[in-house]
Amino acid sequence: MSLAGRELILGVTGSIAAYKAVYLLRELTRLGASVTVCLSEHAREFVGALTFRTLSGRPVLTNLFDPQSEDAVEHVALAERADAIVVAPATANLLAKAAHGIADDFLTTLLLAARRPLVIAPAMDGGMWEHPAVVANVATLRGRGVAVLEPDAGALASGLSGKGRFPEPDAIVEAIRRALTPVRDLAGERLLVTAGPTREPIDPVRYISNRSSGKMGYGLAGAALRRGAAVTLVSGPTALTPPPGAVFVPVQTAEEMREAVLQHLADATLVIKAAAVADYRARQAAPVKLKGKRDLTLDLTPNPDILAEVAARRTGAFIVGFAAETHDVVAHARQKLESKGIDLLVVNDVSQRGIGFDAEENEVLLLDRWSGQKALPRMAKADVADAILSHVLALRASAAVKKVARER
Ligand code: PMT
User: Which of 234, 269, 307, 397 has the lowest tally of Cβ within 10 angstroms?
Assistant: First the structure.
């Protein structure tokens, strides 16, 4: 995909790497893009606007509140004219504002107004990139479809060494190219995905549940929507906002999840069960709040196995399950894959810190019913979601090829 003739906005924020944005601008204009540069106030402390103005041949935008300025441009109109927006370098502060919709200067207001592909190339010092707040903000942005690049590792401006260096211009250009050519390889697919925990009432105020946040399932829904699929998201209670465009079916209990899944199963071409369904429920939830300090024995009964039931219906959909394991991971997972009769099992070892339940990242093993096995590295859940979807497409294509070969 050529950048020639493309309208880009380059946002630059106040990092010591701001001078590298000059080289990026030169490369973008060399490739034929028309670039409007938007500097944050702090970026101007590092590099003067004149440098960007000279290289871009355009006024440089900095101030939202100066209508007298001869360079004044309306941020909404500017955002609409652009084919893509790239913020490079982006500070931790910019990531936080973008993730939380804070619009207190020209650049952040433009980001909020824009409905264009957004590429962010972070650069920061020390342990900032690994700080939980930054990790969470990056996950939020990626979950929204923003291409947040990984910074490079190496010597940092502070004299420390670590991850935080401005990515190479080539990597940023490649990310812009990709953002301009969104992959629509799931167009025509209908994904039914489950997410989050279920809640099984014990009495009107208490329930049995688990630590699933829904992030993995919502990540899959968002990734599939971006790639052109129609998505139905059946979700247990979570604190997340469903991705725009999904048919959202909120449920509480495993029974409700089963009903919702079976109701939407008929026209699904792909089913992914990322939900952590409670295995048991109270045989009889108490109608009033349980009182007293005596020992209490709960009479539990198993919930229906929704995934096994879906697979047994053989609707023709490709069926993917998840397995949360803590020990003998591969052996338990293989057994689960076979007993449930599904096509692919995504296995997370939830005994590991930083992945699985309520984490921003995941590291999974993909086991398929044709005896294949593929380990994915630790990644943001949005990236794991994309990798799972790509793997499903590849498996389905190769299974179809093998079937044709067998029938010949
Ligand atoms: O939600 P997050 O915080 O992002 O965390 C993600 C996750 C860890 C919850 C997710 O990656 C995951 O592993 N989900 C499945 C967890 C689980 O319940 O594993 P399981 O081994 O108990 O179940 C295996 C499969 O059967 C799952 O696809 C589950 O949805 C399904 N199942 C289980 C029990 C049941 N009664 N009905 C089911 O359909």
Answer: 397
